[in-house]
Amino acid sequence: MKTDRELKDLWIKFFTKHGFKRIPGYSIIPENDPTVLFTTAGMHPLVPYLLGEPHPAGNKIFDVQRCIRTNDIDEVGDSSHLTLFEMLGNWTLGQCNKKEMIKLSFEFLTSPEYLNIPKERIAVSVFAGDETAPRDDEAYNAWKECGIDEVYFLPKENNWWALGGGVGPCGPDSEMFYDTGKPKCSENCNPSCDCGKYLEIWNDVFMQYRVKEAGAKAEKLDKPNIDTGMGLERTVAVLNGAESVYDSGCLKKVIDFIGTKAKKNYTESKQSTRSYRIITDHLRSAVFILGDEHGVVPSNVGQGYILRRFIRRAINCARNIEFDCKYFTDIADIYVDEYGKDYTDIAGNREFIKDELVKEVEKFSKAIEEGHKEFEKVIQGIEKHKEFALKNGQTVENKLSGKAVFRLYDTFGFPFELTKELAEEKGYTVDKAEFDEKFKEHQEKSRVASAGVFKGGLADDSKQSARLHTATHLLLAGLQKMFGKQVIQKGSNITPERLRFDFNLDHKMTKEELDEVEKFVNDAIKREIPVTCEIMSLDEAKKQGAHGTFNNKYGEEVKVYTIGDVSKEICGGPHAENTKELHHFKIVKEESSSSGIRRIKAILD
């Protein structure tokens, strides 16, 4: 039986042996306030390097990255979906030797020294080709040479990888599946089926192309890359012959713990099984978010909204299986004990995590009370409408509108089932079709909000975005000169049109302060200062006074961008070559971002 730790260790051993250098994983909360709410893949923080920036650790790197994805949140509770997972990733930057990577993939999967999966249990899919790019015969032939019999050509929807929004690096991929041994569902059964025969465990992405703007055709990258990703939990489940990802490792520990306290058994019904799994998954995600160095707490916006949704959904599921939410803190302890070994921020925030879980349970209890009051108001409104209708010879159905039911869900956290149950007690039905429609709209909005791309806070790698990126360095230097070095960047979001920069400050800036900071930046622009980049050790960067948070996100070597005597920061780039390219800096707005955090929006004109 393999554990999560054993698989991580094998991954580290294998790629170190083959000349790859390990880099530290990034925070689960993207540091620079990007267009994704969470780090959804190991490659997101690496986009500048995938577009040609040299990486301080070289062109062959690997890591273990914590990730959160919410686009499949409604699938959580089945045998394979999770909101949080650890991704094992490796990259070859600036070259795309498919045959070499496929040989490495085959070796790791089948070698007795590593995963020891019989090659007969491995199926592979490759890109079938279309007007974007030709059929990937190179990958197909490489797998055949390795002795894999089941290699399928599948269309773009299955075997083409691109960033959210379709802009940026992209290319054909080669997906590896474990054959569970179940019979084929039909003659045409292949890895694209959802019949359960094939379970994806690894993906080699060949980033040979890029799309510069939405709707544009893919162009060949001058420096292609290979990006691979293996889901840790799913692979461990496969290696252990488990029926689901919840039947091995730390997830099973939590399932077993819930079973000692809940009044309903894990396998008592489909609803019970699903409820156990959602509690297990969502509380793990909550622990990772609360424990993150960036300190997100439950709220009604952004990451805080997703965190609140995780916790409240777990509370609703606890109600289904009659599990007391006071035990949420015990589950948090199980997760901190397990993951604190690898993620020191989680280990150091144990009490904070538990305190926030307790607070949210209490808040939700109050919200449920408010929801009950709102439910009664809805019923009273319908009764009044019925009374009026009857006086006018009309009839009104005893039915709650889907819009009203969705409002109870979205505002007060009432699950559909709870509203339906309360309505039936009063002789009412609910409009399920309308609720589903509203819920689908809500899902789409959430999916759009979570489907962006992380490029160090940049929307793209255009020259204008690079100029604005340089402007943020000058802006931070100006703020630190005015208010002291304790002012640090708390987030940034940069498009070709403007920059948005968050920083810690305990007051609203005055017009005089804004004018002075603006003048500071423009003076630096007028001086026409070259922007230089050096790769050096982290210790050397510290000695030179480079600005950075100096947490465990950095590797042994870092890139340091220097703007004369004005700014020296650890940064991935890209940047302007000289401050004169910025022309003129103008602050258009200063406002509150959150408690103790201010936000400046600025442009270059």
Protein traits:
9-stranded mixed beta sheet; BirA Bifunctional Protein, domain 2; globular; single chain; 18 helices; Threonyl-tRNA Synthetase, Chain A, domain 2; 605 residues; alpha+beta
What does this structure look like?
- The protein has helices spanning 4-17, 47-50, 98-110, 137-146, 156-159, 232-239, 249-261, 270-291, 302-320, 328-339, 344-348, 350-391, 402-412, 416-425, 432-449, 463-483, 511-526, 538-543; strands spanning 21-22, 60-68, 84-92, 122-127, 150-154, 160-162, 168-179, 198-211, 219-231, 399-400, 429-430, 489-494, 499-504, 531-537, 557-563, 567-570, 585-594, 597-604.
- With 605 residues, it is of the alpha+beta class.
- The chain has three domains: 4-246, Bira Bifunctional Protein, Domain 2 (BirA Bifunctional Protein, domain 2), CATH 3.30.930; 248-363; 463-604, Threonyl-tRNA Synthetase, Chain A, domain 2.
- The strands form four sheets. Strands 1, 2, 3, 4, 5, 6, 7, 8 and 9 form a nine-stranded mixed sheet that branches.
- Strand 12 (489-494) and strand 13 form a beta hairpin.
- Helix 8 packs across helix 10 (328-339), helix 8 crosses helix 12 (350-391) and helix 10 crosses helix 12.
- It starts with a helix and ends with a strand.
- The model is unreliable at 448-456 (pLDDT under 50).
